[in-house]
Every structure is written in structure tokens, then in C-alpha cells.
Amino acid sequence: MLDKIYDPKQIEKEIYELWENSGYFNPDNLPVPGKTTVGEPNKKGKANKTKTYVIYMPLPNVTGSLHMGHALDNTLPDILIRYLRMGGVRTLWLAGTDHAGIATQYVVEKELKKEGRTRFELGREKFIERVWEWKNKYGNIILDQLKKLGISADWSRTRFTMDPSYSQDVQKAFTHYYKKGWLYRGNRTVNWCPRCSTSLSELELEYKNEKTTLFYMKYEPFTLATVRPETKFGDTALAVNPNDERYKSYIGKTLNIESLSTEGSLDKPSLTTINLKIVGDDAVDPAFGTGVVKVTPAHDITDFEIAERHKLPMVQVIDHRGRMNEQAGKYNGMKIAEAREKVIQDLRALGLMAKEEPYEHRVATCYRCGSTIEPLPSKQWFLKMTELAKNSIEAVDKKKIKIHPKRFEKPYFEWLKNIRDWTVSRQIWWGHRLPVYYCVCGKCDHATVATEPPKTKCPKCSCKEYKQDEDVLDTWFSSALWPFAGLSEIDIKNYYPGDLVSNAREILNLWDARMIFSGLEFKGKIPFNDVLIHGTILTKDGKRMSKSKGTGIDPLNYINQYGADATRFAVTWQASGQDIRWDEAAVIAGRKFTNKIWNASRFVLEKIKTVDVTIQDTVKPKTAADKKILEELQNTKKIVGKNIEKFEFSKALHELYDFFWHSFCDQYLEEAKKQLVADNTDSTTQKLLLQTLTESITMLHPFLPFITEAIYQKIPNAENKLLMVKTW
RNA sequence: GGGCGUUUAGCUCAGUGGUAGAGCGUUGCAUUCACAUUGCAAAGGCCGCAGGUUCAAUCCCUGCAACGCCCACCA
Questions:
Q1: Which end of chain A, C or N, has fewer beta carbons within 10 A?
Q2: pTM for the whole structure
């Protein structure tokens, strides 16, 4: 018999153990292979024929703990996969964690900072040891938390993106691309901290408002505005907006412009003539300054991108220490601020300064030391995207892969059509080291791409010794391989390609698009059929939930207080497809619903106690109420199944809620009470109560797995089975 | 700046070319007999604003406004 009060905490723990011990999370242990019709079969009917269904979990980073986004990310696929498993499908939900290069390095460095140390003091090897310690300690936190949510992933196959076999696949992918001629080295302007002597990612930048001066310099026939006159020696073009009527006629011309010379003595500024081409580029805002900008590709990221588009040369005038270099002639060796001051004076003296006005703007500073960051050119590895992007476009364009909802196809196509080559190298320590070797002599820069240090002499300089590239690969380079690098060879035969990924929209391009072309490139097949994009969970005020802003909510709070089922209920109840303004009331509604289910079950089990009925009994309805509830049950079953298969989980749950609470509890149970005291010699009412209850909790199981399983275990003659593998 | 989305009951959201729905909240009544984490009932909405299409618009179209998200950027 069921306890009077439903205690989720205790029961959820027991039930989860029951499931794990059954081994059914692993598809290899599942009883009967069956069929699936999920996600509308492809033309070839792949989904119809398949006996497996594979979902790729969005890899949680090893940096953090659970938030509502993860709860949503994982509850929805869990509904689907439980539904299918109950349909006899061999379901594999592949779980894993991502080393998340920059993000993880960042948190470990913050740890170090608390100890007053830096990664440079530790050195690369020791530092990486520290990151591994972190990973081993916190790496599976989210996965453990997901278990509390009831997630039925196959934990026996859990992978980490830096597992040895995974690393091998990463290296193979790199060498593969290299052999195809798609990898090349080139310059790219990056964010550089002159004080820490390192490049910084977007994550490591802190923006500060800076009060400065906007200088209007004469570049006859133009005047143009800049806050950084000292970089003028690195100018390689001038740019205007192509639609700017004032300057349209200049586009494409090269002008001789009178300018400040870097020659001569510092005491006596002098003039020289420079040649600058005028280019038209949309990046130029005609409303800013005079609508003409100088293009300094080596020292400005936007300018670098303009230069790329127009194939402009790059002249570096500032070095890695933040000082002017020999290209700056007589200003060589000056610090940036010093040089700026001197250049301003010289421009004024020569009458080249048209106007100066106060100006406030945002500057990027180093999160560690607060220094203003200095965009500088550096050598990076690039992956040519032309072919790869084309393949990803085609996969969706030809409907081999469907993105739900369809409107997300647009940003997907836009991104891929305008894609630039992918910078795959990162100047950090934590990650997959590039399988690239250079000879130690330092005389030649010949790069050998290989998974091991080459044993032969360098073809250029005959040098015998090599050192590996210091850089690591972009995290997405490895997570792009997840659908197959996460599988063993035998698993690839059985389970690749898979079926579904479900994630938030911001990684549609970063991750989904890259998994698609990687799957096609390395396995010759699309990795999945469906991409399910769900809404973002916002706060009740409609702001983004974010840990750093303190607006994030940990679902464990709800799980502990109201139970995992109530939490899953709340997430699913609200997941209509739009962004969700999180409403805690939904969790309470979920708690009430589980309570309702519990008590209705207690009632039914109490009423059948005295008679001999089992769930195998077939029942002929006698009264109008009997007929009605059976009809509604069948109808609900149809609607719920259909909606789950269309990924309309929220609708399915609303339907179930309505049926169970109102049709079953409010109406039929009340009728049943009357019927039970009236003539009922053949136990029809008892049988119907039991049947409806059993079928209800079966349908509810994918949504509220714990409580339904707990009840099922108490139902007489439940065939000794688990509800998780009971067929619908 | 580009893209996308939202605007319906006090709150969070469904929904349909033909008198408007749910959950929570509110109010009233009920209640030893599954559940007060309950039941029954009620109140509460010019379905953002302005045009248009239509016999008929909350729904389709155009414009406007507000809010939000994603991406890019601020010389």
C-alpha cells in the first residue's frame, strides 16, 4: 500500500537506483527491438525502419553546475526517449562532458588568483595538472545532478572530450583537413594584453568606459576621426560606406595624401606623402565622425576584417610589449601613450589636426591586470569553410535534417552563407594541442602536421629536432565530432547516425552546424535527423537567466523542495517553444499534480484491495460513466502520443493533466464511489479504476517518471516489470 | 547595426477566420469516508495601437509602439 504522504526525496532516490540497476539505460540491455515514427520519417523512411533512437546530449562544460537551461535541455529529450523506450525502441542517450577550453582555464585561473598565483608561475605542465584536478573533482557534477532530475541517459557510455580515444579522433580530424589542403596558417588580429603577454578571448575582456579625445586629422581631401592617432603609421587604406553619397566617387581610387613623416628628428616634425587606397565597406558608419575612417589592420579588429575583405596589406607599428616598433621610424621604442601624445603635438604643429573633441567610449581591458588590451596580429591556423559550410547548408536545404521550429533555418543559412574561415587555434593551455611540429632551429618555420613528432629531417633546414605547436584547438573543433568521437567502433556500426539534438538557439551555429559538416566529412552521413531548438529560460522580468548576474536558478532548489517530477512538470508545462519567463508557481502546480496522482492511486488501490483484479483483466464498460472514461482514455492516448512524436511535449502534458485531474479524478472517481456502493458484483468498476489508473501512469511516466514508477511497483500483478520498459 | 520573436484575465502562458481558454492568484460555498497540495461555483479580458482584406479579424496583410532574445560591432 502507498504511504499516506508522497515523499519525493526518499522515493526518487530508490527509484533511480532501481532503474540504474536494471541496466535499461543501456540500449544493449533492452528487451525487444521495435519501431519508431518520431520526427516524421525521411523520404527513405529511415525513421520508420530503424530500431534504434539516439539522442546526443548537449555536452555540459566541466566548469559549472546545473541551471534551469540544463533542466530544459534535458527534460524534453528525456520525455521523448522514455516514450520511445516504452515503445520497444532501443534508445541510446549519449552523455558526456566538454573540456570547454577557455571557460575551464578561466575558472581554474580564478582559483589560482585566490592563492595569489598565476598560470605562468606554475608553468604549462603544472597548470594543466591543476585543471585535471579540477575536472576530476567537478567534471561530473552536472551529470550527477541530471540523475537527480531523472534523466535516463546511458551513463555507462559517458565520455569526456579529452578522453584518449576522443583526442585521437580530434588529431585525425586535424590531419585529415590538412591533407585536404583546407588548413593554413595566416595572420589574424587578436586581443593582446601587453602586460600579461598573452592573447585574450572575448570572455577574458572587461569593458570599461573611457573618457578620451576624438581627434579629427586632416587626410586631404578628407578629414577623419580617430581616438588612436599613433596607429596612423599602420594605415593601409581609407574606408567609407559604399552608400555614402559624399565619398562614393572616391571608392577604388588611390590618393596621395600629405601626412606626418616618421623620418627626421623628433624635435622637428616633417611632412611626407603617403598613398592610400579608398575602399567601400559596410562596416563604416557614415554617421560617425566624418564618415571616413583610416584602416589599420594590424591594430584594430574591425579594420583587420575590412582588410581581409579588400585584400589590404597589414603594417604592424606596435610590438607585443606595447611599444612602437621600427616601422614607426623616429617614434620607435615609445610607449603607446607617449607616442600618442607626441604624434598629437606633431600633427598640431604641422596643421594637420582639424579638430579635437571630448569623447567617451568603451575600451576592452584585461580581466586579470586591467591593462588596456592591444589588438595585434598573430599567427593562427585557419580551416577553410567553403566546402564544409556548403555541406551543412545542403543537409538542411534538402530536408535531410530538420530544424524545429523551422524559423531557425534562416539564421542557420545566413551564418553558413556568410561564413569566414574558422580560426581553430587558441592561445591557451587547456585543450587539444595542435598536432603540428616545427623544428627547433628557429631559422625556418616549416610546419609538419602529424600525430607524432616527425622522425625525419626537416625538408627545409635539415633540422632533426622538433617542438610541438604551443596552441590548442578551439573547443568547438572537438565538440563538433561528438556524434561519432563519443562512440566506440562497434557503437558506430550500431548507433551512427543518431537521431536528435536538442539545445538552445545560441549554439545552433557554433555546435549543430559544425556537427553536421563533421559527420558528413568523416562518416559520410548526417549525424542526426532533427535539431530541436527550445526557448530560453528568462527570469520573471523577462531578463536572461545568468549566474554572473545572480538571476540564475538552480533546479536542485526545486528538486529538493518539491521533487524532481514537479520540477520536470514545471519545465515542460511552460516549454511551449517561446522563451519562458520562469514562473515558480508552475513547480507548485507540479507538486500539486503529483500529490493528486498519488492520492488517486491510493484511492484506487484501496478500493481494489478486497477484490481479485489485475491489470490483465479486460473490461466491458457498463455505465455511461464507464464508457465515457474509456473513450476519453483512448482519445488522450492518441493525442499524447501524437504530440510527443511532434516534439510538442508541453501540449502532451497539458492534455494528460486535463484528462487525469478532471476526467479521471473529478468525474470518474466520484461516479465510481457511487457505483461501488450500488450493485457491482462483477467488479467492473474496480477493474476500470485499475485499468484507467495503470494506463494513465503509463502515459504520464515519460513526464513524471519517479512517482509513476513508484506507484506502478505497488500495483498488483505488475508482471514484475519496470514501468520504464512497459509498453504503451 | 543585422536577424528573430513577443504583446490575450492580477501573474505565467495556450488558442481559433464566426459569442475567448488553462494553471496560479482572488471571492463565495462545501468537506469525518483518496487528496485542504481538495471539490463546486463565481468574479475578472474594446486578445498592444492605427489602418486594410473579408459577410465576419484576437487570428490574414501593412504601418506604428513597447518589450525581449541571438549575432555582430562601437574607428
A1: N
A2: 0.85
